[in-house]
Design goal:
With 184 residues, this protein is of the alpha+beta class. The protein is built from five helices and eight strands. It is 28% helix and 30% strand.
């Protein structure tokens, strides 16, 4: 998996183990800061089941992000032709959808979340088949909109998903490089 040396330390990704990582993830996705993850009332078994479903899905993948070897963030990516955005926009060849969640902490590190999204995007663009990343965060999640724009995302329009009103945004490899100086 990818390893990125960031100003905040070493960030790396590994495959998520739905059984072994469920308890850890449960603490993250039910934390008040993860309200936009929409799993606030999930039980540990619900989290394990959700990630078992992802592990079995050829069009959806989950990776655990590590900060200096310790679990610190979650990354999901998916094929928007088959998951999340089916019927809500016209996917292009090379599109990949992405979600990320930074673990709650009592000791925030300045610039950490931006380093995480940069590492996530770098990982996605390391695949030469990925030409554009698509995201669909809740329209009210202003913090993630600012992060997305910082790494090159351009909002296109609001869309109505079953669970939320979302801001459909896209980032090409060129936009990512122009915004961050990172070449993947």
């Amino acid at each position: 998996m990818s390893t990125t040396k960031a100003a905040v330390g070493r960030l790396s990704l590994r495959p998520l183990d739905p059984v072994e990582d469920a308890e850890l993830l449960h603490g993250w996705v039910t934390h008040p800061k993860a309200a936009y993850w929409m799993m606030q009332d999930a039980k540990p078994v619900d989290v394990e089941r959700a990630y078992m479903d992802i592990a079995a899905d050829e069009h959806h993948h989950a990776l655990l992000g590590l900060h200096d070897g310790e679990p610190a963030f979650l990354m999901e990516y998916y094929d928007p032709r088959h998951r999340e955005l089916v019927g809500l926009y016209e996917p292009r060849p090379g599109d990949v959808g992405m979600h990320f969640l930074v673990a709650p902490t009592d000791r925030p590190v300045h610039g950490f979340t931006r380093a995480v999204i940069t590492a996530v995007m770098t990982h996605l663009f390391e695949d030469p088949a990925v030409l554009r990343v698509v995201v669909e965060p809740d329209v009210s999640n202003k913090a993630v909109h600012a992060l997305n724009e910082a790494v090159g995302f351009v909002p296109e329009r609001e869309i109505e998903k079953p669970e939320k009103r979302a801001l459909l945004s896209f980032c090409t490899r060129e936009q990512f490089t122009a915004a961050t100086g990172v070449t993947a």
